[in-house]
Specification:
The complex is a heterodimer of chains A (800) and B (296).
Chain A lengths: L4 H4 L19 H6 L14 E7 L5 E7 L1 H5 L3 E5 L25 E2 L5 E7 L2 H10 L1 E6 L25 E9 L2 H7 L2 E8 L12 E7 L2 E6 L4 H11 L7 E4 L15 H13 L3 E4 L2 H7 L5 E10 L5 E13 L5 H10 L9 E10 L14 H18 L3 H8 L5 E2 L5 E2 L4 H12 L1 H7 L5 E11 L14 E7 L6 E5 L8 H13 L6 E5 L16 H28 L6 E4 L2 E4 L11 E2 H12 L3 E6 L19 E12 L6 E11 L6 H20 L31 E6 L22 H13 L10 H12 L22
Parallel strand pairs in A: 1-12, 10-11, 14-15, 20-21, 27-28
Antiparallel strand pairs in A: 1-5, 2-4, 2-6, 3-5, 7-15, 8-13, 9-10, 9-12, 13-14, 16-17, 18-26, 19-20, 19-25, 22-23, 23-24, 26-27
Helix pairs in contact in A: 10-18, 14-15, 15-16, 17-18
Chain B lengths: L6 E3 L4 H11 L3 E4 L5 H5 L15 E4 L9 E4 L3 E5 L4 H6 L1 H6 L1 H8 L4 H6 L2 H7 L6 H7 L3 E6 L2 E6 L4 E3 L2 E2 L6 E7 L6 E7 L10 E10 L2 E10 L6 E2 L1 H7 L6 H14 L10 H22 L3
Parallel strand pairs in B: 1-3, 2-3
Antiparallel strand pairs in B: 4-5, 5-10, 6-7, 6-10, 8-9, 11-12, 12-13, 13-14
Helix pairs in contact in B: 9-10, 10-11
The chains are: A alpha+beta (800), B alpha+beta (296).
The structure holds flavin-adenine dinucleotide (FAD).
Chain lengths: 800, 296
C-alpha cells in the first residue's frame, strides 16, 4: 500500500526520545520490593471483615432464611439478606441485567449469593455464616449447555424461556451460492472447555461511607464502570461514588464488573457505619468465575481449488452459566472477529448462548475470540490437508490485506498479516521443515490471529469520551504527573502512558509520575478491557502532553524572544530549531520555563481526550467487534509428543506481531510471553471441572487447576514485530494484549496433529486424550466424533 | 483463608513428645513441616470447607534435632530421620552418593518452598496414594521405626500403609526414622508422571530397584504409586523378571504384567485406563533407566 509512504519507509522514521524504547516499568521497584500495596493489604481504623454465604445447590428455591442465631454471635456486626439490599437487578451488559446483590427467591448455581455478614474478623465471619439457616427446595438443574434448550428442561430465569440468553443470526453476502460454486466444502465440529483467568490477586473491595458518599477501594479493571454501575444500583449520583484502584495483580477480564463484594460490602458498611473489607479466596474466585465460555463450534467452509475461502458458516453454542455477565458481547465477538484475518465475502453466523446452573462466564483475555479462532485455525488446517496445500500457503492465499473492509463492515487500515506469516516462516524454518520432514512424533503448527485495539463502543450506551487525561507540572518543573483513570493490571499501561505523555511533552520519562485509577483524581477513562488503553488512553495522554508542550513553548518563546513555532522540546530541553548561536537564544530547561509559568499564571495543566470515530455497520449487533484499529499476529509452535503417554513437550514457539509502532518493546515481549503461557495451558491443561450431577466445582484450587510454571515454558521463544504504522492511532500504535492469545491454541493443536497424525477436536488436548487418540488409531478405531447439539427448542430461528 | 485456633506444644525430647501423645489421645496430632496438615485444615471459603479439620492440639516435633539427621550406621544402613525435609534428601551428600534415586525422587516433589518444609515422616504418615517418597523407599526395602510410651516397633515400610490416608501408626506413635538397608540392588529409579514439570501431584509413579549381573536380573522390586489406595508392589512382575536376561521385550512384558496388578481410580487427573497404561510405560522406562545408569 502506498497510502502513507513516509511512515512505511523505515529510513524516514523519526527518531523518538522516549517511545519505542524499553523503559523500565514505572512501578517495578515498588512491586518487586513489596512496597506496592494491593487492595488486600489495605486496612482502615475500625474496619470490619465481610463474607458471603453462598448456595450449596445448583438450582433451588429459597424457602426461608433465619439469621437470628448468627446475629447473636459476639463480634458479628451485621447480617444481611436480600431484604436489606436493593432488589434492582444489575449486570454489565445492559441488555441483560439479571443478577441480584443477594438472591431473592431462587439460587441458580453452587456459589450463588444468599447472605452476607460483617464481623470484627474473618474467623467470626465463618462462624456467623455457619449459623445462618437457609431452607432450600432443590430444583432439577441444567448442567449441560448442549441440552439446556431441550424441550422440558427446567427454566433458570423466568424472563428467558427455554434458557436462551442470547440468540444471534447474521448473514452477509450469499453463502448458499458460495457453497454451490465451491470446489470443496468441509464441515468440522470443535469443542472448547471452561477456563478461568486465575489472576494471582484475589478480588477484594473495601467500602466506606461518609454521609451519603460511598468510597470503594477495589480490584477493578475499570473504575468508571464500577462508579457507574454502583451509583445506579444505589440510586446515587456518580459524583457521590468514588472508586479507587490500588495496585492490581492481574485481571484478564475477570475484574471488569462489580461483584457481590462491592454491592454487599457497601450495604454492610452503611449498616455498621464502619469500613468493610470483603474478599474472595481462591475457591470463591472459581465460583464467581466470569472466565472463558465453553462452547461447541461448527464450521463449514467453502474454498476454491487453491484453498481461497469463498464462504464460511459459523454455527456456535455457548455455555453462559447462570448469569449474563459480559456474555452477550462474548457471544457476538465469537463470530464477529472471525472474518478479520482472512478475506471472504460470504458469511453466516448463528449463535446461542445458553443459561445453565453453573457459574457465569464472561470475558477472558481475547474475549469470545480464542476458542472460535482455535476452531477455525484447526478447520483450515483440515481443509489444507484435504487439498494437499501447505498450512502456511493456505494462510498466505487468504491473508487480509491493508485498507480492506471485512464482510461484516469492519474497516481495516494497517495490516501486515502477510509479512507476519512470512517472518514466522523464516524464523521457524517452516518451508525447510515441511520439505524435509521432521523427526518422528515432532510437528509444527501455525495459526493467525487478530484483535480489536479497543472496543469501538462503550459497554453501556453513552457518549462520553472514551479516554481523557490531565497532566500537571510540578511547579518547579522537576516532575510531571499524569492524572487519568486507566488501569494498570500488570500489563504496564502506567509505563506506556507516561512514555507517551513524556514524548508528547518533550520531557523525560524518568520524571513522570502517574495517579491512575481514582475517579476523584483523574478524568474519565473506561479502563482496561478490549485492549484499548495504548491506543485510546494513549491518544488522550498524547494530546494532554501536547497541550503542556504548547504552553511551555509559548512561555519559552516569551523568555527567549523567539516565535513559539521556532521552538521545540526534547528530553526536557527547550531549544530553537533554527537559531544556533554560542551565546544568544540558549536552550532553556523545562524547570526554568515551568517555574516561570507557574509564578506568573499558577498551575500548568494540560488536557486531552479521545473519542472513537463512527465505526462499523448498521445490522443488529454491528457494534461488537468494531474498533479504530486491528492488530494482527502469527504464531507457530513446535512440539514433541511422547507416543506412549501422550505427553506434549514444546520445543519452540514463534510469534510475529503487527501491533503498529511499538511504544515499549520489552512490555510487548511480556504480553506475548504471557499470552503464550495462557494459550499453551488452555490448549492442553486448564479446565474448570464440575460434578455433572451437582454442579459442584471439582478443582477450585491452584493445585487442582494447573497453570504452567517457569519450568513448563518452552526453552526457545522467538518473538518479533513487523514494521507497521496505524494512521488512526497515536504514533501508529495498536494492541498487543489480548490478540496474542488468539492464534495460540490453534497453532498448538495444529502442531500436535502434525506430530502424531491424529485428530483431537476438543480442548484441552490433555496428554490422556492424545494417548487415547493414538491408541484408537493403532487399533483402527474411529475417533469419537463431536456432534453439534440441536438448536434450542425455543429458538426464534433454527438455522439447520 | 484462616486456620481455627488450636493448642500448640513443642516438646524438647522424644520422650516428652510420646508422653504428650499418650496423654492427649485422639485430641492431638503430630506437626512436622505442616505442609499437609495445615493446608488441609484451612477454610478457603464457606464453599470450600476444610478437607480434614484440625485436631484440638498440635504437638510440634521441631525441637527434636536428632530426628533431622541423615547418616550411615554400620550394620544398619542409611538412617533417615523422620524430620529430614525433602530438600535435605535432595542435598544430602550421603544420599547423593549411596542412593541418588532417593534424592532425585525428592527433587521431583512439590516446589522449593514446600521441599524446604515438608518432611519424610509427614509424607509417609499422610499416606496419600500419590505421595512420591513411598515408592522409591519401598523399592529399596526400607524399614521404619515407630516409637511411643509403650516402646518401639520396627516394620517394613510397605506394611505401614493400610488405605487412602490410613496407616498403622497409632495416635500415640511417632515415626522416628526410615532405614535403607545395605543393598545388593545395582540400580534403582523413580519416575513420576504429573501433568506439569513442577508442583503437580503424580497421576502415576513407578519406582524400581534391580540387581543385575551379567545382564541377568537376579532380583527386582517394583512399586507403583497413585494407582491404588496405597503404594503397591507389583509382585507378579517382579517374579517374572527374576533370572531372566534383560531384553527390550522383557521390560515391555514386565510393564504389561505390572499394569495388570494396579487398581487405579478415575478422577479429573486421569482415567483408570490411562493410569494403567502409565504403569506399563513407567515400569518399562524405570527398569531401563535403573539397569543402564548402574547406580542405586
Ligand atoms: C503445594 C504442595 C505441593 C506438594 N507436592 C507434593 C508432591 O509433589 N509429592 C508429594 O508426595 N507430596 C506433595 N505435597 C504434600 C506434602 O508436602 C508432603 O506430603 C510432605 O512430605 C508432608 O510433610 P510435612 O512434614 O509437611 O507433614 P505434616 O503436614 O506436618 O504432617 C502430615 C501428617 O503426618 C503426620 N506426621 C508428620 N510427621 C509425623 C511423624 N514423625 N510421626 C507421626 N506422624 C507424623 C501429621 O500428624 C499429619 O497427619 C505437597 C504439598 C503442597 C502444599
Amino acid at each position: 500500500m502506498s497510502l502513507l509512504p513516509e511512515y512505511r519507509d523505515p529510513s524516514k522514521k523519526k527518531e523518538y526520545a522516549v517511545i519505542g524504547k524499553s523503559k523500565p516499568k514505572i512501578d517495578g521497584p515498588e512491586k518487586v520490593t513489596g512496597a506496592a500495596k494491593y487492595c488486600g493489604d489495605l486496612k482502615f481504623p475500625n474496619m470490619l471483615y465481610g463474607k458471603m454465604l453462598t448456595s450449596p445447590y445448583a438450582h433451588a428455591k429459597i424457602l426461608s432464611i433465619d439469621t437470628s442465631e448468627a446475629e447473636k454471635i459476639p463480634g458479628v456486626k451485621a447480617v444481611i439478606t436480600h431484604k436489606d439490599v436493593p432488589s434492582k437487578k444489575y449486570g454489565i451488559s445492559p441488555a441483560r441485567w439479571d443478577e441480584n446483590c443477594l438472591c431473592i427467591d431462587k439460587v441458580r448455581y453452587v456459589g450463588d449469593k444468599v447472605a452476607a455478614v460483617a464481623c470484627v474478623d474473618e474467623e467470626t465471619c465463618y462462624k456467623a455464616l455457619a449459623a445462618i439457616k437457609v431452607e432450600y427446595e432443590p430444583l432439577p438443574a441444567v448442567l449441560d449447555y448442549r441440552h439446556a434448550g431441550d424441550e422440558g428442561m427446567p427454566n433458570i430465569h423466568e424472563e428467558y424461556p427455554g434458557n436462551i440468553n442470547t440468540e444471534i443470526h447474521q448473514e452477509f453476502g450469499d453463502l448458499k451460492k458460495a457453497f454451490e460454486e465451491a470446489y470443496y466444502v468441509r464441515k468440522d465440529v470443535f469443542q472448547g472447555q471452561r477456563a478461568y483467568q486465575s489472576p494471582i490477586e484475589a478480588h477484594c473491595a473495601i467500602s466506606m461511607w461518609n454521609g451519603n458518599k460511598l468510597t470503594i477501594y477495589s480490584t477493578t479493571q475499570s473504575t468508571h464502570y464500577f462508579q457507574y454501575y454502583i451509583a445506579r444500583e444505589f440510586d446515587l449520583k456518580m459524583g457521590d461514588v468514588r472508586i479507587i484502584k490500588p495496585y492490581i495483580g492481574g485481571g484478564f477480564g475477570g475484574k471488569l464488573e462489580p461483584t457481590g463484594l462491592e454491592f454487599n460490602g457497601a450495604v454492610l458498611a452503611k449498616i455498621t457505619g464502619r469500613p468493610v473489607k470483603m474478599f474472595y479466596d481462591r475457591a470463591d474466585m472459581f465460583y464467581h468465575n466470569r472466565g472463558r465460555h465453553q462452547g461447541t463450534y461448527e464450521l463449514t467452509t467453502a474454498v476454491d481449488k487453491n484453498g481461497k475461502i469463498l464462504g464460511v458458516h459459523a454455527n456456535f453454542i455457548l455455555d453462559g452459566g447462570a448469569y449474563t455477565s459480559l456474555g452477550i458481547a462474548t457471544a457476538y465477538y465469537a463470530g464477529a472477529l472471525l472474518p478479520l484475518t482472512y478475506e471472504f465475502d460470504n458469511y453466516k453466523f448463528d449463535m446461542y448462548r445458553m443459561y445453565t446452573n453453573l457459574p457465569a462466564c464472561g470475558a477472558q483475555r481475547g474475549h469470545g475470540a480464542p476458542q472460535p479462532k482455535y476452531a477455525f485455525e484447526s478447520h483450515l488446517d483440515n481443509i489444507a490437508r484435504d487439498l494437499g496445500i501447505d498450512p502456511l500457503e493456505i494462510r498466505l492465499v487468504n491473508a487480509r490485506k491493508p485498507y480492506t473492509t471485512t464482510v461484516n463492515s469492519f474497516d481495516i487500515q494497517s495490516c501486515e498479516l502477510k509479512a507476519c506469516l512470512e517472518r514466522v516462516a523464516e524464523l521457524s524454518d517452516w518451508r525447510k521443515k515441511k520439505k524435509e520432514g521432521m523427526p518422528k512424533n515432532t510437528g509444527i503448527g501455525i495459526a493467525t490471529g487478530a484483535f480489536v485495539s479497543g472496543a469501538g463502543y462503550p459497554i453501556y450506551r453513552n457518549d462520553w469520551p472514551d479516554a481523557s487525561c490531565m497532566i500537571r507540572m510540578n511547579e518547579d518543573g522537576t516532575s510531571a504527573t499524569v492524572y487519568n483513570t486507566t488501569v494498570d493490571l500488570g500489563q504496564g499501561s502506567d509505563t506506556v502512558i507516561c512514555q507517551m505523555a513524556a514524548e508528547a511533552m518533550g520531557y523525560r520519562y524518568e520524571n513522570m509520575r502517574i495517579i491512575s485509577g481514582d475517579t476523584e483524581a483523574g478524568p474519565m477513562d473506561f479502563g482496561a478491557y478490549s485492549s484499548r488503553q495504548t491506543l485510546m488512553s494513549g491518544w488522550a495522554a498524547k494530546r494532554a502532553g501536547e497541550d503542556i508542550k504548547r504552553q511551555v513553548l509559548n512561555m519559552a518563546a516569551a523568555m527567549m524572544g523567539l516565535p513559539p513555532d521556532d521552538l521545540d522540546a526534547r528530553d526536557g530541553i527547550i531549544f530553537s530549531k533554527s537559531h544556533h548561536h554560542p551565546t544568544k537564544w540558549q536552550p532553556l530547561t523545562y524547570e526554568e520555563v515551568v517555574s516561570q509559568y507557574c509564578k506568573l499564571y499558577g498551575p500548568l495543566i494540560g488536557k486531552g481526550m479521545y473519542k472513537v470515530h463512527a465505526t462499523g455497520g448498521t445490522f443488529k449487533g454491528a457494534a461488537v467487534g468494531t474498533s479504530p484499529a486491528y492488530s494482527f499476529c502469527v504464531q507457530a509452535a513446535e512440539v514433541k509428543v511422547d507416543e506412549e503417554t501422550g505427553e506434549i513437550e514444546v520445543l519452540a514457539f514463534y510469534d510475529v506481531h503487527d501491533c503498529g509502532q511499538p511504544i515499549n518493546p520489552m512490555l510487548i515481549k511480556g504480553q506475548v510471553h504471557g499470552a503464550l503461557y495462557m494459550g499453551m495451558a488452555e490448549t492442553y491443561w486448564e479446565e474448570v471441572h464440575f460434578d455433572p450431577k451437582t454442579g459442584v466445582c471439582l478443582n477450585p484450587t491452584l493445585g487442582g487447576y494447573l497453570l504452567p510454571t517457569a519450568l513448563d515454558m518452552p526453552k526457545i521463544i522467538k518473538n518479533e514485530i513487523v514494521d507497521s504504522y496505524e494512521i488512526v492511532a497515536p504514533w501508529g500504535v495498536k494492541e498487543v494484549g489480548e490478540g496474542s492469545t488468539n492464534p495460540t491454541m490453534g497453532c498448538f493443536r495444529n502442531a500436535i496433529v502434525d506430530a502424531v497424525g491424529v485428530t483431537i477436536n476438543s480442548t484441552p488436548i490433555t496428554y490422556e486424550k492424545v494417548w487415547r487418540a493414538l491408541k484408537d488409531k493403532k487399533e483402527g478405531k474411529q475417533p469419537a466424533e463431536i456432534k453439534m447439539p440441536p438448536p434450542p427448542a425455543n429458538a426464534a430461528v433454527k438455522p439447520y | 483463608m484462616y486456620i481455627p485456633d488450636f493448642e500448640y506444644y513443642a516438646p524438647d525430647s522424644l520422650d516428652e513428645a510420646c508422653q504428650m501423645l499418650a496423654q492427649f489421645g485422639g485430641r492431638a496430632k503430630v506437626l512436622a513441616g505442616g505442609t499437609d496438615i495445615l493446608p488441609k485444615a484451612k477454610t478457603f471459603s464457606p464453599i470450600a470447607p476444610p478437607q480434614t479439620p484440625l485436631p484440638e492440639i498440635l504437638v510440634s516435633l521441631k525441637n527434636l534435632e536428632e530426628l533431622k539427621k541423615i547418616e550411615y550406621v554400620p550394620g544398619k544402613g542409611v538412617v533417615i530421620g523422620a524430620l529430614a525435609t525433602h530438600n535435605d534428601l535432595v542435598n544430602s551428600e550421603l544420599l547423593n552418593k549411596k542412593y541418588m534415586s532417593i534424592s532425585e525422587a525428592a527433587h521431583q516433589m512439590a516446589n522449593n518452598q514446600v521441599r524446604n518444609r515438608g518432611t519424610v515422616g509427614g509424607n509417609l504418615i499422610n499416606a496419600v496414594p500419590s505421595a512420591d517418597l513411598p515408592p522409591i523407599l519401598i523399592a529399596l526395602n526400607a524399614s521404619i521405626k515407630l516409637v511411643s510410651v509403650d516402646g518401639e516397633r520396627v516394620l517394613p515400610l510397605e506394611e505401614l500403609f493400610l488405605d487412602v490416608c490410613v496407616t498403622c501408626c497409632t495416635e500415640k506413635e511417632i515415626l522416628t526414622e526410615v532405614v535403607i538397608p545395605d543393598q545388593k540392588m545395582t540400580g534403582s529409579n523413580y519416575i513420576k508422571f504429573g501433568a506439569r514439570r513442577s508442583g503437580a501431584l503424580a497421576i502415576a509413579g513407578v519406582a524400581v530397584a534391580v540387581e543385575v549381573e551379567n545382564n541377568v536380573i537376579k532380583d527386582a522390586r517394583i512399586v507403583a504409586g497413585a494407582v491404588a489406595p496405597t503404594p503397591i508392589r507389583t509382585k507378579k512382575a517382579e517374579d517374572f523378571l527374576k533370572g531372566k536376561e534383560v531384553t527390550a521385550e522383557l521390560l515391555e512384558e514386565a510393564g504389561v504384567i505390572a499394569s495388570g496388578e494396579c487398581k487405579p481410580i478415575t478422577d479429573i487427573r486421569g482415567s483408570a485406563e490411562y493410569r494403567t497404561n502409565l504403569v506399563r510405560v513407567l515400569t518399562k522406562r524405570a527398569l531401563r533407566k535403573a539397569i543402564d545408569q548402574g547406580h542405586v
